[in-house]
Amino acid sequence: MKTSLVGLLIAIAALWTAPVFAQDLSVGEIVKKTNHAVYYQGKDGRARVKMTITDSQGRTRTREFTILRLNTDTRDEEQKFYVYFHRPADVREMVFMVWKHVGGDDDRWLYLPALDVVKRIAASDERTSFVGSDFFYEDVSGRGLDEDTHELVDTTNNYYVLKNTPKDPSAVEFDSYTMYIHKATFIPVKVEYEKNGTVYRVSEALKVEDIQGHKTVTKSRMKDLNSGSETVLEYASVSYDVGLPEAIFTERYLRKAPRKYLE
Amino acid sequence: MSSERITAFVTRRPWVVAGVMLVTSIIIVAMVAVPSLWPAEAPFLNGVRVDTDPENMLDHDEPVRVFHDRMKKTLSLYDMLVVGVVNNENPNGVFNAASLGRIHALATYAKSLKGEALGLDDPRAGVIGVDLIAPSTVDNIEPGGLGEVRFEWLMKDPPKTDEEALAVRDKAARLPFLEGTLVSEDGKAVALYIPLSSKDLSYEVSAKLKAKIAELGGDDEYHITGLPVAEDTFGVEMFIQMGISAPMAMLVIFLLLLFFFRKLTLIISPMIVAIVSVIGTMGALIITGNTVHIMSSMIPIFIMPIAVLDSIHILSDFFDRYQQTRDRKKTITAVMADLHMPMLYTSLTSAAGFASLALTPIPPVQVFGVFVSLGIMLAWVLTITFIPAYVMFLPERTLANFGAKNHEDEENTANATLVGRILRMSGAFTNSHARFIVAGALLLAAVSVYGISQIQINDNPTRWFKKTHEIRIADKVLNEHFAGTYMAYLALTPGEGRQESLSDYTEGMFARLDAKAGKEAGDVPEYAAVAAEAKKQLGTLVAGVETKTALLDAWETYARKKYDDAGVGEDIAWDDLIAFIDGERQRDEIFKQPEVLRYMARLQEALLATGVVGKSNSLADLVKTVHRELFEGKEAYYRIPDSARAVAECLITYQGGHRPNDLWHFVTPDYRTSSLWIQLNSGDNRDMSAVVASLDDFVAKNPPPMGLETRWFGLTYINVIWQEKMVSGMLQAFLGSFLVVFLMMTILYRSALWGILSMIPLTLTVGLSYGVIGLIGKDYDMPVAVLSSLSLGLAVDFAIHFLSRTRALYEKYGHWAATSPHVFGEPARAITRNVLVIAIGFLPLLAAPLLPYVTVGFFLAAILAVSGAATLLLLPALIHLGEPMLFPKTRPRALACQRGTCIIAALAFAALVAVNVHQFMGLGINSLAGTAIAAMVAWMGGCWIVGRIYRCGLDPIDDEQ
Fold first, then answer.
1. Burial A205-236, CB ≥16 within 10 A → b, else e
2. CB contact, 8 Å: B572 with chain A?
3. Of the candidates A179, B531, B714, B830, which lies 20 to 30 Å from B639 by C-alpha distance?
4. What is the CATH architecture of A24-258?
5. pLDDT per residue as tens digits for the range B315-373
6. Which residues of B touch A110 (CB under 8 A)?
7. CB B897 within 8 A of CB B947
8. What's the CA gap between B121 and B127, in Å, rounded?
9. Is A203 helix (H, G, I), strand (E, B) or coil?
10. Residue B913, number of CB atoms within 10 A of its CB
11. How many helices (H) and strands (E) does chain A have?
12. C-beta of residue B310 within 8 angstroms of C-beta of residue B383
């Protein structure tokens, strides 16, 4: 009796609040749409990326790679990535491949041509540096939505401000991160990571372009306020629905890059 | 103003003297106290600034420091606190769940010590968290399952069981970077390396860490060390020393004076002279904006004995004569007239001895020398003005019982005392056994020469603390467990002057381009045509550029454009070409070249063989480790791979961890400068020098590839450099002041022979003290080096007093046999009193918490004893033997008329010029010789001209009187 009463009250409350959110969205929906806008647009995608790492002394290093992405389900979950390095010349032909599994550990491979080895990479977490930059592997392939609890802390004219708190705080180095999500495009324009009440890491979308009808971030930056270093990614020749065959996302193609899809 | 008029003035107006002195002292104290206590109130004044940084032994723009600072910045290296954790209760040391849990908590806490937590405005100032080395902040890299490599935090969470704790140990022991650094070689201890944005924060950070450690509890032992902590602690103890040891010394001197003169009111005057001299000197030091450094903190200790020295002579003489006249004014006037010359000369010579330190290339030693000599002259001024003035304050009736009733009485009573009897006996002994004494002195001199040849030049700032000090204990414990807590770095850079010409370069490059074309032919059919086209373009580009960089940039711009315009297939070929251009640029990245890394590894082995280097960490170790882990962790793969590309792949793999930027502590992002981090288990300069020598030897036998050049930096190395400068600088400074003093003596006595005679006690003293240092194996370090100046200053004082009084008495008695007993009366007693007062007065320094002060205290006593003995035994023996030469029946009228004296003085002057010119201008031996000969000729010319002007007749000595 008592439980059903509580259930009824919740149902009423839900009915009451539903109209309020009708024009806006639930937190869950915002999160899903954002996730889609950042990682899952199109059936597949390709971009040539120039990465510039600038350290606190102003010294820069650049890397260039092509990133191929294929969605392997329609639920915005399973995905495969193939990252082929063009520059610097000495790591040319190096490949980093990911089979992303939401809710489980991703499979990751690294192909090192000069050493002639293909290694699977096991890491205690995905918050290790992506090839020495200020981006983490997780920033490249996306963080599972279920790993955080999401809270809409503010809605401004242009942005949803979402605070995300990890369910397992020991698995990550931050206490929480706040996303400023553009209402119309669901692109997170700014993400701030906090530890002990201080923002120490900031990611920003610096340029958004419309490519084949998809709003796409074509320039982004990650700043590490602790080390004073920052990394800028510039996406050139982005295309969607390229028709990437799933076969190229396999170990076999690590040693023999599908160059046809890489230029 | 002549001395008589000074004495007349101050005895007439004693209140003026006392007033001026008091007011000046108050002003000086205020000028120091106000800006120190309320800096905001007096921004234009300098407060007390303490500087305990041994780095400041060298000038800021000294090349080794400039390089050190530059490399620290380039490679983001910081000064570190080292916290060692040891557990002697548990058989596995700290590798148990509880201990590691506490270490985890401490590391997390240490990371938070920045910005606000330390009350700093800059949020990044404080502990540099990203570079902190602790089990919870470093990566473990190991082979996972088949074909798998694993990156993980070494100790992400505190271990739950002891088994997990041991697993942490075993993982770390596999990694060359961590073994011996983070985890001790015996697998029992852990060390945390806590980098600080600034050394100044070390005291506060270590205090906070200590509080946290206390809060954590447990049975672990924590040792905090590292140069920054040592420096801060030194600063604190330095003040304790200045606050306790110096006043203690003063108290003992006071008691001794009381014992000798038994007149409290009278002996307060030398104490006032000493205190005011110290206030004036330290005040001047601080007001002029100089820092209180380990050297300058010793100024009071040096000034005090010298300041009371002259006063004791005055009091001694006054004590003797007062009862003859019972008139304080007459007595003091007579005393001052008697002592005027010896006092002026003793002060001048002592001051010259210390002023010569200004010639050393070490700023704190220069400051020390200048201010001590300033203090000595200040003490002299106070002695000749304030002491007579003070005597006038004493009512005649209080002096009624002062001194001996009459001269004969005094002599008799004094001779009856133990000191008096001994002195009388020694006086007789010097006459009867003159040859024996001289032979003994020669023997001692020979022993000294041998001892000096055995001297070990060495220093180590950590050893400035006593063995029982917690810093010394930490130092010992940690260096037993770990590879070493003393850091030195070796920078490797490509040599200059290995630039190949542009045409040579393009020739080689074309060959590589063709080779690549051959390789690509199968994969990219378009490549051959593209390469040919690009080559043609390069031919036109090369005319317009001067450097290889400019050429490659222009070429790439061209290729990029072609790539953008190219159709399918051809674009791949152009991309290949752009990669080729990039590869050409990377040919300059020498620290990816296997031969360079292998050389580096061999060099590390050579350094390890010295035994002092506990461990060295380099880019080569990093590459080898990653390579091994990529090949299932097999030891056979712990090596440098065979190509630069393979090296690059190891490095980029390493950078996929949690701490990618650790790489940049070992190499710059352009791969043109690399640095080895060397952990030494001893901070002795001698050991560091041995490492430097073994590197030089290795490099000489194994010429480095690519013309690599090596250059040291790091605090341990900087210490070696300033020590080298100090040793040679001190030697030259000593030579310089020795010559100055000799010239002054020659002029004072108008005889080179007397000049030489007066130098004998100090030469023997300095020789014997350094001989003993060599014989007992005491390291020649900074405080020991400074002692040579002090010996010179003090020992010559006794000689001056002795010889001046001897000459005066000789004129009265006519021959040595009659003079000797009188010389061994009051003058000898004054010297003996001085020796005892100062030697005993400084024994409290033996209780000082810091060893440099102990050394100074001990040698001060020894120097005084030796120079006193040399003065009272050797000088009379020599006078006894050389009486006919020293007291000739006829004497030329002017100094310049004495040919021998003039020539010797000219030689001394020439040598003096040479020493100074060498010091200041760094001239070589040849130009030095020229300058010296010119100076000598000039002086001799002077002698000749003066000799012509005066008529150098030989006057009978009696005519002069």
1. beebeebeeebbbbbbbbbbbbbebbbbbbbe
2. yes
3. B714
4. Clam (2.50)
5. 888 877 787 777 888 888 888 888 888 888 888 888 888 887 887 778 888 898 899 99
6. 149, 653, 656
7. yes
8. 14
9. strand
10. 21
11. 4, 13
12. yes
